[in-house]
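Sorry, explain these tokens?

***
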Amino acid sequence: MRSFDMTPLYRATVGFDQIADLMDRVLTNDTSTQSYPPYNIEKTSDDAYRISIAVAGFSDNDLSVEVKENTLHITARKAEEDGDRTYLHRGIATRAFDRRFHLADHVRVTGATHENGMLHIDLMREVPEALKPRRIAIESAKSVETDVVEAKAVN
């Protein structure tokens, strides 16, 4: 149940609808359904991030990573197994999943690797030059030279 009303924010601001949408998504997100698969989000440098997802039992062909409209979609679909196997205990979950991460503006995916049962997705924040802070040089005021004409006394 949502306990915040975003109507005053929409009514009193212009251009902040992305923030309101983000708040709305966070408040309505059901965290109990988002527990599989486990994942980590790391900050590897000032402008670089890595998402690591535990994908034991999945091959490269079973995994899909896509970016669409500032949303990172990671999906896994396990191919049908032979019915020949009889499990006494099945503890490795290889059920299909669809995990989504909303990316901030100017964050792009630079690569993905799959090794040792972990899917690593590297991200980089690239701020355009127009949005980066820039230093403005301060010049000292030049003294203004005035032309002085000497007056001669007339008598």
In short: Residues 1-35 form one domain. The chain is about 10% helix and 30% strand. The longest strand covers residues 107-115.
